[in-house]
Inverse folding.
């Protein structure tokens, strides 16, 4: 049996997880691993190199796995690998969200596979389920909790910490980056939603064309007041299809404590799809070296077992116009009485849930859908 | 673009759902549909036949879809289709649970695909996730609620009906068959668990080699007493890997009311996998014409887009020896005091949860794991 030869770009937690899983495989072999500084890996048993050309120009390498992260040089390496007629597997949500359509087009042109299961939901096989199963009938909406750092911070605030304390703790424990903005400002979730939207609706909506609100304006007192009403908060990403548009929003959203989102802690993610066939949910580890590596290995397997798709995913950009949903409004000063507005669906001390059609309100933090 | 030509064996709810989805497809075409009595389908716009040979012997048909149900002649038709070098997609859990290994071996021999996503979890892409994603690392256990009829009956009993009343209502509404034994005695769940076990552990455990308990001995009073303790009941199928054996059990099991299983109603199913990568759950419609048809269509797509697998699923039967788990014990007479036994983990009026190692107890209904 001929082995599939793999070149690994990057050797962090996920790259090492891939190596670990493949050590027991007869069919898949890691031929080379790109690292930035060879001297940091003395004693490591792996075919290391610090020269990307040794992977990208090696005719014996069939599949390039990119787990470096960041837009550049990751995007450039992926492009070169495809041009060299290698299939590519990546876990890089930034690259896929930004360059997905053109990389998919390039892959189609060179008749190679470009797969990115690990870029959304870590170890949950959500993209394959979406692209190959659930979208056999039209999908109405996709939503999920796709960021573990915000789960952790919101849970800490629920235990009594301030936002700043919770963030500091997450950083100290390695659950948040030193620059935490991608997680707490919602951009990490937004990139994942862009990818989900691309596969669900064949439209690659940029986060900048939707609404992206993070959790940094959430105060511990908001969470306590909501809990008294039997509600909890999660950072939710949601896109929905409308006749001529797609709604796209990432925002903190309130749910009854019995909701599946409030049972998610740490890196556990949940992603749901609503279609004519019903509501389908996938839950599992959204991060972690081994978990994320399982998605990468399954992509490699799929490449090994398949001919390049005869019908690649079609991407027809078409953008947001109108959306329908409710949103949660918090008052900056929870002691102030709520303003008089029509159509309050639910309210409590310092917050209320209202239809999205209401205009801006003075002195309030609003988490909502916005028409583009 | 050449169309994939499909022969449909059976034209019930699921078969009609497949036809409905494929009507808008350019790439997949239903060439012929086998029905038993042509006269029952007057006015139906479909290429009907009552002669299976017109499908099985037609060299233009690429894929045979079997949605007749029952062991025979379904098994025989599937075998003939494979021998005629057609790929086969089936929703038939009875055939797959009983003849899965030999049909997979035959498919491998003739280098055709044999796929059965719809046989477990209806519209939930659980088998593809399991075989191609989640099993990249060893799976420790698989469990789920995979039967909607029992969800419905248990919910009706929770509302105050007796078992007999609830069953009668389910039958009247079409949620249970006139012969309801496959659902209520646990055999439907057991067949699905056999398939899950086959893919998760590469062992095709027959239901007869495990423990299969249905819900017919559950009384409304059991459910009421459990609810007072914050517990609810679902028919759960569970298999787990042990060093030299596989535990296999279908039984009513008690959970806190906040558990995901108690949020499942009607045909909604949930299936979970525990592996080194974490716990992954899939939830969605476990039955219904359109939902089940989406799984069939995704299987057909997979065949259209792939060469036959170079590494088909390996099936190495190896059987049950020991299992570790707790089980729930109900007393036939809830008014009688509980017997004195060691290691009661939790108890209430008329029931208790005990480790599996306890021996048989007089006067009690026991739902438990049994060492083979």
């Amino acid at each position: 049996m001929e082995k599939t030869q793999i070149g690994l770009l990057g050797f962090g937690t996920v790259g090492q997880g891939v190596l670990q899983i493949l050590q027991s495989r007869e069919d898949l072999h890691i031929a080379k691993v790109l690292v930035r500084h060879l001297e940091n890996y003395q004693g490591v048993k792996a075919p290391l190199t610090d020269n990307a050309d040794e992977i990208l120009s090696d005719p014996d390498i069939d599949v390039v796995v990119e787990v470096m992260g960041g837009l550049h040089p990751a995007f450039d390496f992926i492009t070169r690998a495809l041009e060299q007629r290698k299939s590519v597997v990546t876990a890089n949500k930034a690259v896929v969200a930004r360059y997905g359509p053109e990389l998919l087009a390039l892959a189609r042109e060179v008749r190679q596979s470009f797969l990115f299961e690990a870029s959304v939901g870590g170890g949950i096989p959500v993209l394959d389920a979406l692209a190959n199963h659930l979208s056999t009938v039209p999908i109405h909406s996709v939503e999920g909790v796709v960021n573990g750092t915000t789960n952790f911070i919101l849970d800490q605030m629920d235990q009594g910490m301030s936002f700043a304390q919770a963030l500091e703790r997450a950083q100290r424990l390695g659950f948040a980056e030193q620059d935490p903005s991608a997680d707490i400002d919602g951009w990490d979730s937004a990139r994942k939603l862009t990818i989900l939207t691309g596969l669900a609706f064949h439209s690659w909506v940029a986060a900048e064309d939707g609404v992206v609100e993070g959790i940094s304006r959430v105060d511990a007192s908001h969470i306590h007041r909501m809990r008294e009403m039997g509600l909890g908060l999660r950072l939710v990403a949601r896109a929905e299809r409308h006749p001529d548009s797609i709604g796209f929003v990432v925002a903190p959203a309130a749910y009854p404590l019995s909701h599946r989102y409030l049972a998610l802690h740490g890196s556990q993610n949940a992603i749901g799809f609503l279609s004519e066939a019903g509501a389908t949910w996938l839950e599992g580890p959204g991060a972690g070296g081994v978990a994320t590596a399982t998605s990468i290995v399954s992509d490699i397997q799929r490449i090994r077992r398949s001919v390049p798709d005869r019908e690649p995913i079609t991407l027809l950009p078409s953008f947001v116009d109108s959306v329908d949903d409710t949103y949660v409004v918090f008052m900056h000063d929870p002691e102030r009485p709520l303003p008089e507005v029509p159509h309050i669906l639910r309210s409590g001390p310092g917050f209320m849930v209202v239809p999205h059609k209401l205009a801006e309100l003075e002195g309030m933090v609003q988490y909502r859908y916005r028409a583009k």
